Amino acid sequence: MREPWLWLLGGMLTPAVMGYTLAKPSLRHQWLQRFFPLHLRRQTGEKKAPLVWVHAASLGEWQAAKPLLHAIRKELPQGLILATANTETGLQTLEQERDTLRFVTPFGFDTPFFLTWVMKVLKPDAIVLLEKELWPGLMTMAARKNVPVLVANARMAENQVEKTRRLTDRFPILTTHPWFFCRNDTDLLHWKKLGVPLRKQWVVGDLKLDAMSQTPLVELTPWERQWLDDGPVLIAASLHHDELSLVLDGYTRLLHQVPDCRLVVAPRHMHGLNSLEEELLKRGVASQRFTQGDLGNRNAEVLILDAFGRLPAYFQHSEVTVMGGTFGSLGRGHNLLEPVWHGSPVLFGPHLSNWEQWGMLLDKAQVGSRIETAEDLAVIGAIAIDKREDVQAKLATARQELRQGFGAARRVAEALGRLIRHEPLE
Predict the structure, then answer these.
(1) Residue 215 Ramachandran class (φ > 0 left, ψ -120 to 50 alpha, else beta)
(2) How far is CA 161 from CA 10, 177, 186, 202, in A?
(3) Alpha-helical regions (H) of 24-132
(4) How many contiguous H segments (helices) and E segments (strands) does the chain have?
(5) Please, is 418 exposed, middle or buried when counting C-beta atoms within 10 Å of its C-beta (0-12, 13-18, 19+)?
(6) What is 21-32 written as a DSSP string?
């Protein structure tokens, strides 16, 4: 598709995109600025400074990308950074990085006016896209203006290759113009299947490793510490609603072997809290929400962690973690490394998506296990609790191996600096 037709299509679709974002609560934030970013202007003294546009989809991607922002600031101390996100939670995360960022605004979803304004008014010297945020209009305009594009943490699962091919075959610019900075050799080979030349791919490690090591833990309240230390703790992290029954069935079975075990449920999405509490009530399980604080049920068997940012600190008090997003048929997959890094072995389902390679490595290190049933959860959970000292020794070894993968943010930022200075990538 030639560029004029691409812009014509983008213009025709803009009203529909605007209507969709207005109707969806997570995309409604700063709705007018999303499509008409007239507030984005360089000051007079900033016009010669290099500007880097960094885009990630939402909260999870931006949490992983925070070390990259700081690495870019170190590489380009006089540079400016524009950060965009699709969702309100992503934008809220960016507001916490205002000391690092010059501009923060919602992403305009490849609509012509948004792209034209950013590219012509701000004139970015380079663009960094996180993971798979490949947009045909953005890429076409960047290529025409000779602006380098880097895809950081460029992940690609085997089961997503053919689906992505439908997009890349239609828009070859998506694989020929950017530089891809992959997490591992598996990602590299999958991008190669999609037509990305090997000369434009680099394996630099996983940004999420950097994020885990650099994110400070929240201070737990006294009542949290007391509740968590009263007995063994099972955490169900990033749990989706369709995975709840398996986890609760497994927890019920686990109680037969470990009667004083407690459960922390950290839902992936907060809109289903009422149905979660109703299900626990039907099963006769006493629960309380974190936001109820010490005024809630002090004898609760289940704590519903209805607040973001506290889970890593909870992992340090957990004997075993079940990772959500790995049991449902969609195979969403979530971060398997975070519990291990903070001291908790992890159980996961059959659908790991982009975490398949890490799942095999954790299984080999005996700090992760693939399970399919509630009975599996109960049996392996009981073993992890009973063999806690042995498991902790294996976790220490695994964390030492994870440290060898740190540095992805620095490597991407250094490559970014070379491209802006028109130096060859070594």
Answers:
(1) beta
(2) 25, 19, 12, 19
(3) 31-35, 59-75, 88-95, 112-117
(4) 19, 14
(5) middle
(6) HHHSGGG-TTHH
Rg (CA), the chain: 23
- Residues 363, 380: contact at Cβ < 8 Å? no
Kindly state the tokens that stand for 132. 């798979």
**Closest residue by Cα to residue 104 from 125, 130, 122:** 122
Summarised one tens digit per residue, pLDDT across range 113-124 is 999 999 999 999
d(CA 333, CA 325) in angstroms, rounded, equals: 5
- 118 neighbors 86 (Cβ within 8 angstroms): no
Query: Which amino acid makes up residue 307?
Result: A
Measured from the Cβ of residue 292, the count of other Cβ atoms closer than 10 Å reads 14
**Residues 108, 90: Cα–Cα separation, whole Å:** 14
Instruction: List, in sequence order, every residue forming a beta bridge with 172; answer none if it has no partner.
Output: none
Instruction: Please tell me the pTM assigned to this model.
Output: 0.82
128 vs 132: CA distance, rounded Å: 11
Helix (H, G, I), strand (E, B) or coil at 370: strand
The DSSP annotation for 168-218 comes to HHH-THHHHSSEEEESSHHHHHHHHHTT--GGGEEE---HHHHHHHHSPPP
Residue with tokens 């407690």: 262
Amino acid, single-letter form, for residue 339: P
Kindly give the pairing relationship between strand 302-304 and strand 149-154.
Answer: unpaired
The closest of 373, 362, 382 to 243, measured between CA atoms, is 373
Contact 248, 281 (CB under 8 A): no
Question: Among candidates 411, 407, 308, 405, which has minimal Cα distance to 358?
Answer: 405
Decide: 68 and 412 in contact? Cβ < 8 Å: yes
Strand order, beta sheet including 368-370: 287-289, 302-304, 262-267, 233-239, 320-323, 346-348, 368-370
pLDDT tens, position by position, 276-333: 888 888 988 888 899 887 745 557 889 999 988 899 999 999 999 999 999 976 656 6
CA dihedral sign, ordered 304, 310, 312, 313: negative
User: Residue 181: what are its φ and ψ, rounded to 5°?
Assistant: -110, 100
